[in-house]
Write a structure and sequence with these properties.
With 126 residues, the chain is mainly α. It has helices at residues 3-27, 37-50, 67-80, 88-101; strands at residues 52-56, 62-66, 105-106, 112-113. It has a two-stranded antiparallel ribbon with strand order 1-2.
Length: 126
């Protein structure tokens, strides 16, 4: 075998490897990054005004999480612990704390992440 044949074989292997890597990269969808906190806060205000947030669920579906569902779920949790329901101001502060702590947030594509417990029926344990 001459060195020219080895180089051709090596070049073919290299091209095949590059094509495989390019194909893998083209099918891989990068994970969206988190939006900045000011952008998240502004989008949260808009979401509250229209009454819902688009939330990504573990099954890959985006579902509308309504403000009413958030309120009902949290009030059911507080009631089960013997606490009074949250007032509107307390609920807003509670959700703002969830944003600040990272328990709830928005990705750069405008889709939110949070606990899927909010989609459970209040008062029903799963």
């Amino acid at each position: 075998m001459t060195s020219k044949q080895r180089n051709t074989s090596s070049r073919t292997a290299k091209l095949r490897h590059q094509a495989k890597a390019r194909a893998e990269r083209s099918t891989h969808t990068p994970s969206p990054k988190l939006a900045s906190f000011p952008a998240t806060l502004e989008a949260f205000k808009v979401g509250l005004a229209i009454g819902h947030l688009p939330v990504l669920c573990s099954d890959g579906q985006v579902r509308q999480l309504t403000y009413d569902r958030l309120r009902d779920h949290l009030n059911a949790v507080f009631t089960s612990e013997g606490e009074p329901p949250l007032s509107a101001g307390e609920l807003t502060r509670f959700l703002a704390d969830s944003l600040a702590s990272g328990e709830m947030g928005m990705r750069t594509d405008g889709v939110w992440f949070t606990s899927e417990d909010f989609f459970a029926t209040p008062g029903v344990q799963s």
